[in-house]
Amino acid sequence: MKFIDSYVRSPFAGIAPWVLMGVVSGPGRFEEAASAALGLALLTLWVGSRRGVPVHLLEVFTVGYFGVLAVLGLVASDATIDWLELWAGELSNIALAAFAIVTLLIRKPFTMAYAKDTTPREHWDDPLFLRINYVISAVWAGAFLVSAVVGAYGDAVLRDNDNFWTAWIVPLAAVIFAGAFTEFYPDRATGEATSWARILDWLPPFVLVTGIVGWVSDAVPDGVGIGLIVVGIVGSAAMRKLFPAQAEATEPL
After folding, report:
1. How many domains does the chain contain in total?
2. Do 66 and 183 fall into the same domain?
3. Which of 2, 102, 174, 247 allows an S-S link to 240, with CB 3.0 to 4.6 Å?
4. What is the mean pLDDT of the chain?
5. Confidence of residue 250 (pLDDT cuts 50, 70, 90)
6. Of 207, 189, 188, which Cα lies nearest the Cα of 198?
7. Could you tell me which residue, 228 or 167, shows the higher pLDDT?
8. Same domain for 206 and 190?
9. For the segment 29-41, what is each residue's pLDDT rounded down to a tens digit?
10. Does 72 lie in the same domain as 190?
11. Cα dist. 108→52, 69, 101, 235 in Å?
């Protein structure tokens, strides 16, 4: 229950369906991916309502967006579906980035709605509270833009919408970085002695896993895969040596 409450009260509740869309989508799977994302979005709203969590604008936007995609999957022509299979990832990232940017422009950063769920009302107008949410929302917008740009490069230049780097590794790294920054920045901004290593402690294991997956799946040459594995192992050891408190805090229970 604690994990579920943390999930439905965080921005990840609205972002998870978009990640699921990216994971499931692929040649011949547009309808399934859109339906799965819509299902997760609706499930999140239902669980949130049962846990007494207010509905957030991002979740409403998510349901509307994937509702449209799901309908298109049922009624669109084969040519349109083929186009959507190629560009759905970029469209999704652009839509998310546009959403985040618009909330910044109207002075209602989308992360603030989630922050208010766990912050006493007397702090809602505090300039620091507002600044924290402006910065975090801007970082998420940047992560979505990075994902859109690299995905478009993979589709338009490499002609490969399932490219290991442009469709998976770089977009996933951008999302993980934004998530790590979301956890780190409020503590840093409020004056806690938090090391900047906290927003990078995920990187060595990520490089290690990238090397293993890329090597096993033949997505990268053997030398590159082995090199990434070595860098990941050395980086993890270096993090433990240079930032022992941080490494201890992030070790799994």
Report:
1. 2
2. yes
3. 247
4. 88
5. very low
6. 188
7. 228
8. no
9. 889 999 999 999 9
10. yes
11. 22, 26, 10, 38
My answer on whether 185 and 200 are in the same domain is no
Q: Which domain holds residue 224?
A: 195-253
| Residue predicted with more confidence, 104 or 14 | 104
pLDDT at 192 over 90: no
* Distance from C-alpha of 253 to C-alpha of 239, rounded to nearest angstrom: 18
181 and 65, same structural domain? yes
Assess whether 86 and 140 both reside in one domain: yes
Q: Rounded distance, CA 152 to CA 165, Å?
A: 12
Q: What is the secondary structure of 46-71 as a DSSP string?
A: HHHHHTTPPPPHHHHHHHHHHHHHHH
pLDDT value, residue 246: 54
> Distance (Å, rounded) from C-alpha 195 to C-alpha 250?
13
Residues 175 and 216 occupy one common structural domain:
no
Residues 235 and 167 in one domain: no
